[in-house]
Amino acid sequence: MSNKKPKEEIVTDNLSDINIYDPKFSINPFQLYEKLHLNEPIIFLNNSKSWLVTGADIITEICSQPHLFSNDISVLLAGLHSEKPRVKKILEQGLPQVPVLLMSDPPDHSRFRRLVGMAFSGPRINIIESDIRKISNSILNNLDTEIPWDFISEYAIPMPVNVIGGQLGLKKSDINKIRSWSDAFTDRLSGMIDEKREEECAHAVVDFQKTMQRQITLRREYKHDDLLGDLVSASSDGDKPLSNAEIVSIIQQIMVAGNETSTSAMAEGIKLLIENPNQMEFLRQDSSLIKNTVEEILRLASPVAGSWRIATRDVTVSGKKIKKGDRIMLRFAAASRDSSKFNLPNKMNINRQNSKMHFAFGRGIHTCVGSMLARREISICLEHMINKFKTIELTDYNKDHAYNPNVMLRGLEVLNIKTTLKN
Ligand code: HEM
Q1: pLDDT attached to residue 334
Q2: Which residues of the chain have pLDDT under 50?
Q3: Is 348 helix (H, G, I), strand (E, B) or coil?
Q4: Which residue minimizes the CA distance to atom 38 of ligand 1?
Q5: How far is CA 381 from CA 121, 214, 265, in A?
Q6: Is 302 helix (H, G, I), strand (E, B) or coil?
Q7: Probe ligand 1: pick from 361, 408, 412, max atoms within 8 Å of CB?
Q8: C-alpha span between 288 and 285 (Å, rounded)
Q9: What pTM was computed for the model?
């Protein structure tokens, strides 16, 4: 992970010169989003030779036409088909990466979605809720809160990692590796790492694949009552069973999609509440507001800031002529702050009527399959933090807030806080 801490706002005279790979763009793009909404809600960018879409309605339109805008973006993702011989050699020791869910289109996508969707159903999440509560309580009860602590490393990382790890039936020593595996997967997607880190990531990917393969083999021999067991048995029911490589790729995606995102949402949520003390006070006075606070946090945090699509044919969108093969960056974080949908979009308002209309979970067939789980995790996090601590403040160290530079994911690196326990 990078230690770079650029924080200043990105400035550009010509909107088509925006560089989405500039770390500043991941960190403070909000005034730029406003300009784009007003002037160019869909624009071709000279640097990345791709379209940038910030307008809420245009994003909805594109997401509703998967036959025109494909998710099979594997060729775009740095490292996934790395031509660097050393990286390639390491990856050859593992399983081939299969384009599943986020990287697939119908009809394959529909099959993957059915199988994974079953595992993340409402009744299942209700069962998982008691685990989330136990994990959250155990982390908070074991903290030394007499001194300032980093909310991210102490709570927001271990909480979702342990929830997912439990659902995958992993033992403690493997759960401890989940964060470094996930970092390796996301770093490979970032397009912003050097060759040394690419090699480290490739080793982590192979280690993960071998671990999961052992777990899958166990479940092919004996039925296990967990998410991985569900995926293995679901795959043997249909006419096209899931292969080990498909299952491992699905789990890999769930781990990336379900860890860093939830961590970032919880961290940004706590930061937003501290920075908006009147909102924190409303929430403390009326816990029925937690549900909408989660939505407002998701709207403002939008940890999956953007996602790619590829045009499958020449097509005109909002008057712009997109060519077959063109790459399109859908900026969900911008759509969640589109003033045509949200009044005073950059302001936190936990009483906002339409917070839930945010784009944090995307739109269309790829809408987040883990949204119910994520919402439950964030909600329990807020409930426990507010019930346990009388005060929650930022420490001076955070004046220089640092976000991980990543074109798709936006999340804080550290969030040092001071807390005082309730009597
Ligand atoms: C705050 C937390 C989360 C956010 C903001 C988030 C956001 C998103 C977004 C925006 C998409 C759609 C991307 C696109 O259309 O290109 C997505 C898809 C997905 N998410 Fe999440 N997610 C979160 C948590 C989770 C969790 C907890 C899981 C699972 C444990 C998960 C699993 C997935 C999967 C598997 C997909 C792909 C679905 C498909 O392609 O059909 N996510 N997520």
Answers
A1: 98
A2: 1-6, 78-79, 236, 239
A3: coil
A4: 366
A5: 21, 33, 10
A6: coil
A7: 361
A8: 9
A9: 0.92
